[in-house]
Design brief:
Blueprint: H1 19-26, H2 42-55, E1 65-68, H3 71-87, E2 98-101, H4 102-112, H5 128-144
Parallel strand pairs: 1-2
Length: 155
């Protein structure tokens, strides 16, 4: 009697994803931009795409970048992704991934590769107030020397 053993690889379960979401999830070559309104499943699609990349395409999580516009959206992505990683028993610190707002991801990249910039190690990112104060301190005297500046700027 001959016993045959077959290993059946289960395909990734796309859950409740619709046709367009599955297309976005399976698009693995190059960057992907998803533009859709609120409540259309963007975060759901992104999380499923990340899991598809990790489970089906063997992409290391630290090689994945997810960028959004708001802190709230970034936190939601981190929470949902953490839950999915736990669900699939994948032990990984999401802090090692590039997940966040455009500003936070760019800041992380700057800090990691500061030796390739002209920035000093203790550089500081100015918030809106600091930016305005800097301009006020450093350029007000220059602006005041411009003829008829009062026509443009109230003094």
């Amino acid at each position: 009697m001959i016993l045959m053993c077959m290993v059946i690889k289960m395909s990734y379960d796309f859950g409740y994803a619709n046709e367009n979401q599955i297309k976005a999830i399976k698009t693995t070559e190059g960057p992907l931009l998803i533009i859709a309104g609120p409540g259309t499943g963007k975060t759901y699609t992104l999380i499923n795409r990340v899991m598809y990349l990790i489970l089906e395409k063997n992409v290391e999580p630290e090689n994945i970048m997810l960028v959004t516009f708001t802190d709230k959206a970034a936190k939601e992505i981190i929470t949902r992704l953490s839950n999915e990683l736990i669900k699939y028993n994948i032990r990984f610190n999401v802090d090692e991934m590039y997940i966040g707002t455009f500003h936070s991801v760019c800041l992380k990249l700057l800090k990691e590769h500061i030796e390739y910039t002209n920035l000093k190690r203790n550089f500081r990112v100015y918030d809106q107030f600091d930016q305005q104060y800097f301009l006020f301190q450093n350029y007000w005297r220059t602006f005041n020397t411009i003829e008829n500046i009062n026509l443009v700027i109230e003094q």
